[in-house]
Amino acid sequence: MPKPVEVTTPSDREITVTREFDAPRQLVWDCHTKPELIQRWLFGPPGWSMPVCVVDLRVGGRYRYIWRNDETGGRFGSYGEHLEVVPIERIVTTEVMDGLAMGETIDDEPNWGEGDPSINTLALGEAGGKTTLTINMRFPSKEIRDQALQSGMSDGMAMGYDRLEDMLHGQAAG
Amino acid sequence: MSYERQLDATFAALADPTRRAILARLATGEASVAELAEPFAMSQPAVSKHLKVLERAGLIRRGRDAQRRPAAIEPEALKAAHAWIERYRALWEGTYQRLDALLTELQTQPPKD
């Protein structure tokens, strides 16, 4: 059974995602920071790939991700800057999405400095050989958060819905 | 309220653990404010406040009986929110399952020098 993705909305501008992995923290860190590894899992829903993945992992260093729909050739991307890098523990980045508007085309080199960024904090904790990943995304506005939720390409979301389902189920059965 | 506004209200209502617990209780049958206040060890005004949020979100309806005004769950609203969330969540479940597979592969392969 795959582990559940847990999502909460601490405020109307935020999303927090938590997921456990059966792997040491160093490996989960590598999979989030090394482009050749990122491209092997973060390529979006079926039918999409991630042709561009550039990461300059240091404070002030930039990153650029581009996803591509292999059927239509349509692309959208995300880019930003590293604000904090604490090896194997924590990364804080800015993030701006581009190419989401209908008909908008994007370049590999984004419009650095334009757009209202989100602040994403990735935290990894390890206990007993398992790694707990927490991502907090703070969006510039509620509208942008909701767009991220609807695009399905932000970082997962369930509102503790699993638990609600369980509770509803458990109580109805009990 | 537009469909989107309605969903916003639904998600905001579901974000609170007490409100999720109240919904779980209502899934077993309607209940008055007093009946809800007791198991949750909450004041009746506090329960009323939560019920107002849930009602605005379309997740429950209140009965007409002026005395009790029992709260009852609105299964259709819950279903709509569920469908929307599930679609979104499925994408991330899928993405993290691919990461699981990659992590397994990295742990079983001898490290490259």
Describe this structure in words.
The complex is a heterodimer of chains A (174) and B (113). Chain A is built from 4 helices and 8 strands, in the order ββααββββββαα. With 174 residues, chain A is of the alpha+beta class. Chain A has a single domain, classed as START domain (Alpha-D-Glucose-1,6-Bisphosphate, Chain A, domain 4), CATH 3.30.530. Chain A has an 8-stranded antiparallel beta sheet. The longest helix of chain A is centred in the C-terminal third of the chain and has 13 residues, at 161-173. Chain A is globular. With 113 residues, chain B is mostly helical. Chain B has a single domain, classed as Winged helix-like DNA-binding domain superfamily/Winged helix DNA-binding domain (Arc Repressor Mutant, subunit A, Orthogonal Bundle). In chain B, strands 1-2 form a two-stranded antiparallel ribbon. In chain B, a hairpin with an 8-residue loop joins β1 and β2. In chain B, α3 crosses α4 (44-56). Classes of the chains: A alpha+beta (174), B mainly alpha (113). The A-B interface holds A 2-5, 7-9, 12, 17, 19, 21-23, 27-28, 30-31, 37, 40-46, 142, 146, 149-150, 152-153, 155-161, 163-165, 167-168, 170-172 and B 4, 8, 11-12, 14-15, 17, 20-21, 23-25, 27-28, 82, 85-89, 91-104, 106-107.
General form of chain B = elongated
CATH architecture of chain A: 2-Layer Sandwich
Distance between the termini of chain B: 60 Å
Shape of chain A: globular
Strand segment tally of chain B: 2
User: On the 0-100 scale, what is the average pLDDT of chain A?
Assistant: 82
Unreliable runs of chain A, pLDDT <50, ≥5 residues? 152-174
CATH class of chain B: Mainly Alpha
Helix content estimate of chain B: 55-70%
